[in-house]
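User: Show me an example of a complex going from sequences to structure tokens.

Assistant: Sure. Here are the input components:
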Amino acid sequence: MAKEKASKQKKMNARVDFTPMVDMIMLLVTFFMLCTTLLKPQTMEIAMPSDKEDINEEQRSQIAESKAITILVDEGRTVYYFKGKPTDDNLEKSAFGKDGIRAVLMDANAEAVKKVQALKEKYQKKMSSNLGEELKLKEQYKEELDEIRDGDDTPNVIIKISEKAVYKDQIDILDEMQICNIGKYVIDNFKPEDKAKIDAKFGGK
Amino acid sequence: MTPMSDVMVLLLTFFMLTATFVKEEPIQVQTPGSVSEIKIPEKNLLTIFVQSVAGVGEEGATGKVFMTMDNESNLSALLDKMEESGALSGLTPEQKRAFAAAPTFGFPLNQMKTWLSPENEGKRSELLHLESAGIPCDSTNDELKVWVQAARDACGSDMRIAIKADATTPYAIIKKVMDSLRSIHENRYNLITNLKGADD
């Protein structure tokens, strides 16, 4: 009798079936994995001289000869550079990368590079766990960095890129400016005279 | 089962919070690497895509230019400005809606109407692969200038301009775009790159 009563009352199963939920979540995860990007593209900020304040011959001569470096980027990832006033005999061949143009620029900008190194060390020590303070420090660091980069003893670089070069060359050369802590650079037009100069010295192609 | 679903839910939340959706882009580009670590701004961004048509180093290599903005309201504001300045006119509300919904645009102004017409619904992105597509950006016919100027008027001085181009794009084409930006005194812009180390 008692046995019968017990069987009449339905036993409730306390466990909930999770399978459909997991299925759905799996689907959603796959969807998000396939349809989204995690990595945001980096960017490079660039400021070109405006039309109004275009560098004309007069201003060009204002740049101290001892500090001016002109970099010519030609097709096929070849780089030429010369220091000081553009005369024929000091044009030199270089290349992209660590041992090429970077060594030249690092050498020309040695003082600023040293200063930046010192600045980096100084801020490394100051590192704070406080988020607000950390942000402030970063801001300060950036300001001081900019000051060094635009300092009086840094070289003025004129970059001339041939129309036959590719976009990557431009980015690479601008990169070198950043690596070498050069704040004062300008992108100028690559003129036929520049090409002629390269041809005269290196035979050209 | 429970631990697995826990992990799954965690993963899902992670993806939902960190991810940004892939935007449909007219061209596949391999951006060059750079040491620059600045992130691209998320809001109020005008992206200019540059695609090279002919091979590297060829004489007279031509490029196609496309544009996009980050959200629909900016796009419609841009279109309104274009109408105001008289560069584009006589668009129906339907065409305007189509413009705001398009992920990218890039047609000469005189072909814009056809591109936005209802019969092209659903195949607008495909049409961008046509030979006649692309915003003209020559010294004789510089429509890019008109577009960028209108975008600047529509979105204010906070708007950033970014150029996205493949690493192998001839510099001549990039230069044309830069010259055109220069002629309207847009001297600050971003170049979109990938991250890489300083040594390679």
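The lines above are the inputs; the final block is the predicted structure for all two components together. The two ends of chain B are 47 Å apart (CA to CA).
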